[in-house]
Amino acid sequence: MVKVACYINSEGILAVLMPMYNDPTRPAGYTDDELLERAIARKQANGGIPEGATYRIIDHSDVPSDRTFRNSWEDTGSAVQVNLPKARVLHMDVIRAARNAELYAKDITFMRAVEAGDTSAQSAIATEKQVLRDIPATFDITTDVDTPEKLKAKWPDELPAR
Amino acid sequence: MANEFKHKDPGTVLTQAEFIASDGTGHIFDSQAQGDIVYASSTTVLSRLGKSTTSTHALTNTGTNNNPTWAKIALATGVSGTLPVANGGTGITSLGSGVATFMGTPSSANLRSALTDETGTGGAVFATSPTLVTPALGTPASGVMTNVSGTASSLTAGTVTTNANLTGVVTSSGNATAIADKAIGIAKLADGTDGELITWNASGVIAAVAAGNATQVLTSNGAGAAPTFQAASTVPTEASEANMESEATGTIYVPPDMVRHSPGVAKCWINIHGTDTFAEEQSYNVADRTDEGTGTYEVTVADDFVGANNNCIVCGGHDGVTSDPRFNVGVTGANLTTGTFRIIGMLEDGTTGISAVADGTDIMAAVFGAQ
Question: Rounded to whole angstroms, how far apart are CA atoms B107 and B273?
Fold first, then answer.
């Protein structure tokens, strides 16, 4: 079983360290476990593992395979899993980025309506843009969203499907 | 007095008729009987010796005062002379030493004692199925050794006219022998001179190649001539790391493990599978890599570089979308003197042109420079 080490890096994100077990220049005489300990020691020496940070060695297979909310991973001491509050923030960032792209597109159509003197179109677009602006404040990603899978499926209807 | 010779019919006067009686009955012995004999028991008296009722008795002088008596003949003292073979005797006057003992107790040991020129010890043997213990056979005039086993340790001469068929390394059939292929080890060869080699000369005769001097190499002299040790014309030297880094010229050979020191080859490289669980990744001269978050991978070079500058990191990758130019890979946080650099995957939004960190399917990097 391939082993990896997980720890919180200097950005506050859970990092997963894995020696390149199959590298042809792998030093001779080291077991896999010794190679991992060697990698951890080097990370500690060069600051890759922040001073005072703890690490835990886990099986590589215990690292989540779904990376949708990668930067929200946390180590509970018994499992590496998604931290749902952090994941909601990440998910809203993605929604906000998609919303921004949609606002950008509507800015173009609005400018065309201005150029055409079409005030009714301008008013309609302005209303739509306001709805988009309100999404971060109005779109509920908390109620009944208690798993990463449910959060991942949560997406505003006003935005193009992913 | 008994047995005395006396007048038959004693009276006062012995008549003439009684004296000259023709039937001899005028005198008798006292108590005489059939078979008795007369002898002189003194100078004046005749006496009667009663017959012996034992038929094998003979007349001897073993009676009182050597008077005759009937008795058995004492063979120990009563006979003399040598009984000849013709009469059932031995014709000899004495037995050899131990013969009488053997005749009394005919054992092998007593027989050996009776003999004067015997050899060996133990029991006497006879023709059929004897058991001999460590016999010295001398030189047998003939013999059939069909059932003989064991090893003759002292056979030194002579000619075997018909060999037993041998099996094993040395085989034989009749008088034809052969040695099996690949059966002769070096230890079976005669000692030679240190440093010489074995070859065959132009006549096909086995010969020795004379030992060469230090640094000489074995050189072929072509067909029909034995090889000889000769000075090498040019001996290439093994390239050092410095040779490789300076791309030195000259008669230098490059062993495979030195190729990586050439300025023209990557000192390390890695292919990271970013969107899965990092399985089946490949690398060279990489100690480890760390998933630092979405689209961010820190690589630790196994053999550090000599300087932070004058290096080149080439990277690239894709996010699994065919021909999508929006995904880019960059490098940051490179500190190759401590052997680390980060690879960042970035995905550009097609509408806003804004890029965000994103995972890639394949993230690749190669580093050039001096180590």
Answer: 105
